[in-house]
Structure formats: structure tokens, C-alpha cells
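Researcher: I'd like a candidate sequence for this fold, 217 residues long. If you have to choose between options at a position, lean toward the conservative one.
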């Protein structure tokens, strides 16, 4: 960084006159803080902000992916349960059709055994329906349990990501506070050095000081 640029920044920070621009370059070199340390501090702040943004974006993408997988898995389980229920229903209908056909054939062949065949057919139908309902309930319970587990896993992962995001925000706030303290100490140091050199320093207004401090690297 050139001496003229440093003098311009000092002038912008403290609102000094053009007289300080005429000070020898050697004196400015000794009175200013190490520009490398200032640059490194700002690089750390920028890197922390960029890392936080990347982690938050990654957390959001991961959350979306997990949510999509959970939904797809739940839909697949529900679809399988519906297929099973449909198969059981078709099986029950086939059993009922076979039972009715047998009952009708038996009735035609032997009137005496019609009541017995009818009772057996109704019992077979009842058993088939009970079996179908039992299978459907078991499949639905299994699907509900898997969906609950997937939802719980998603919520646990999202909670962990939110905790990491909060921690990164705290680190950013700490770095921002460090940056403010560093600028304040730098301004105080430069004021003292300029006073020792006999340069009259006019305290900048709070708004102007804040705007000029943002111009520092």
C-alpha cells in the first residue's frame, strides 16, 4: 500500500486537513498500524461469513434432500400397502365367488345339504374378510411406523443443522465485534500518534466516523 493512500485513509478517518498529507513518508510508516494485520483480520471476517453462508446453504440442501427421500419412502410404503390390500381384496372376492359357486352347485345337487354349505360359505367369507382387514391394518401400522421414524430422523437432522447454523452465527457476531474493537483501537492509536506529531485532529461525527471506518481494508 502506498504512503499517499495511507495518508488519504487517515484523512478520511479523522477528518484532518490537507496538512497531514505533507508529512514525511517515514513518519507515516511508523505511526500507522500494521496494514498486513488489518488485512488479515478482514480476511478472517470475510472467510467466516462466506463459510457460514456455505454451511447454511449446504444445510438447507441436505434438509431438502432428506425431506424428499422421507416423502418418497413414505409414498412407496403406502403404495405397497395399497397393493397388498388390493391383492387381499381380490383374493377374498375370488374365495367368495368360489364359495358361492360351490354353494349353488351343492344346492342344486342336494337340497338337504344346502344350509350346511351356506353356513360354510359364510364362514369362509367372514374369515377371508377378517384376514384381509388384519393384513391391511398390519400394513398400515407398518407404514405409519416407518413414516414416523423417517419424520423423526428428518427432524433430528434439521435440529442438528439449526444448532450448527446458530453456532456459526455466534462466531460471525464475535468476529464482527472483534472488527469493531480493532477499528476503535486503531482509530485511538492513530489519534495519539498524530497528536504527538503536532497534527490537530478533529473528532469525526459518529455517523461520519462509522462511514469512514467501513472504507478501511
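Model: Candidate sequence:
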Amino acid at each position: 500500500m502506498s504512503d499517499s493512500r495511507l495518508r488519504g485513509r487517515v484523512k478520511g478517518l479523522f477528518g484532518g486537513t490537507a496538512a497531514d498529507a505533507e508529512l514525511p513518508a517515514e513518519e507515516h510508516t511508523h505511526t500507522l498500524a500494521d496494514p498486513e494485520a488489518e488485512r488479515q483480520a478482514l480476511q478472517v471476517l470475510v472467510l467466516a461469513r462466506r463459510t457460514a453462508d456455505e454451511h447454511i446453504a449446504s444445510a438447507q440442501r441436505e434438509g431438502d434432500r432428506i425431506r424428499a427421500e422421507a416423502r418418497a419412502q413414505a409414498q412407496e410404503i403406502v403404495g405397497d400397502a395399497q397393493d397388498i390390500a388390493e391383492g387381499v381384496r381380490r383374493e377374498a372376492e375370488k374365495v367368495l365367488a368360489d364359495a358361492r359357486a360351490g354353494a349353488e352347485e351343492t344346492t342344486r345337487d342336494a337340497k338337504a345339504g344346502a344350509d350346511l354349505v351356506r353356513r360354510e360359505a359364510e364362514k369362509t367369507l367372514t374369515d377371508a374378510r377378517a384376514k384381509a382387514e388384519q393384513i391391511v391394518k398390519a400394513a398400515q401400522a407398518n407404514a405409519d411406523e416407518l413414516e414416523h421414524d423417517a419424520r423423526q430422523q428428518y427432524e433430528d437432522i434439521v435440529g442438528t443443522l439449526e444448532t450448527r447454523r446458530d453456532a456459526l452465527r455466534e462466531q460471525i457476531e464475535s468476529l464482527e465485534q472483534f472488527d469493531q474493537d480493532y477499528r476503535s483501537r486503531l482509530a485511538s492509536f492513530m489519534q495519539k500518534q498524530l497528536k504527538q506529531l503536532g497534527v490537530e485532529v478533529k473528532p469525526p461525527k459518529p455517523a461520519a466516523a462509522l462511514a469512514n471506518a467501513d472504507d478501511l481494508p
